[in-house]
Amino acid sequence: MDELQIGNMSIAVTKKNIKNMYIRVLPPDGKVQITAPHSAGDDAIRMFAVSRISWIKKQRANFAAQARQTKRQYVTGESYYVWGRRYRLDVQYSNVRNEVSLTGGHLILQVRPESTPEQRERVLNDWYREQLKSKLPEVIQKCEQVVGVHASEWKVKNMRTKWGTCNIDRKRIWINLQLAKKTPECLAYVVTHELVHLLERNHNELFQKYMDAFFPEWRVVKETLNQQMLDYMSE
Q1: What is the distance between the alpha carbons of residues 96 and 124, in angstroms, rounded to a whole number?
Q2: How far apart are CA 192 and CA 113, in angstroms?
Q3: CB 17 within 8 A of CB 38
Q4: What is the pLDDT of residue 67?
Q5: Strands lying side by side in the sheet with 172-176
Q6: DSSP string of the chain, one letter each residue
Q7: CA 197 and chain centroid, separation
Q8: What was the pLDDT predicted at 215?
Q9: Which of 19, 44, 123, 219 is 20 to 30 A from 87, comparing alpha carbons?
């Protein structure tokens, strides 16, 4: 079973070599995911999901209540965030090169006059990727020293539902491009979170104890991250 349907709610189901079932409601759009042991039957998974319906609805309501940016046109006057600070977009035209820069409270996007919104988005996302990659090495090094583990590889990806993800077997960690728009402590929290998965696969009590030890304010930062303005996401 790859998907479970309860009323009008679709829940993704993944089976792994674990002992206990756990459920997650993922930012930014409230996708629900159950991870279950290989031995778990469909009826057991369904009963587990039904028992958590109230909690799921509460989590999804929290996401729905968050402020969301309107659909982007990438024109002068729109607001964009860089490391948690709000900037006013100023689009300038040039046939020389595409370029992005910060000046005071303005985010300058230099593009060709005939560029489409999709092309402008790519230029800006490439710039966000550079910002994140420039900050990541220092953050990773500090977090690895605290947690006491080392990831073999780091990558940046523009993800819809996760701030980060970890391939535990390969020790490969992915960080969401959108974190370049959030406050710096949010990046440190996500990096620490993914590194802790190299110590504990599941989001259980042991995982939380590790987080308490390595990043004592993680609950506050997690709440801050989930309260910050989300990008527009087309269906």
Answers
A1: 17
A2: 42
A3: yes
A4: 53
A5: 153-157, 172-176, 164-167
A6: --EEEETTEEEEEEEES-SS-EEEEETTTTEEEEEEETT--HHHHHHHHHHTHHHHHHHHHHHHHS-BPPPP---TT-EEEETTEEEEEEEEE-SS--EEEEETTEEEEEE-TT--HHHHHHHHHHHHHHHHHHHHHHHHHHHHHHHT---SEEEEE--SS-SEEEETTTTEEEEEGGGGGS-HHHHHHHHHHHHHTTT-SSSSHHHHHHHHHH-TTHHHHHHHHHHSPBPP---
A7: 16
A8: 97
A9: 219
Average model confidence (pLDDT) across the chain: 89
Other Cβ atoms closer than 10 A to 209: 12
> What pLDDT shows up at residue 233?
46
pLDDT mean over 124-150: 96
- What average pLDDT score do residues 172-200 get? 95
Looking at this protein, which amino acid is placed at residue 208?
Q
- pLDDT score for 68: 56
φ, ψ for residue 100 (rounded to 5)? -130, 140
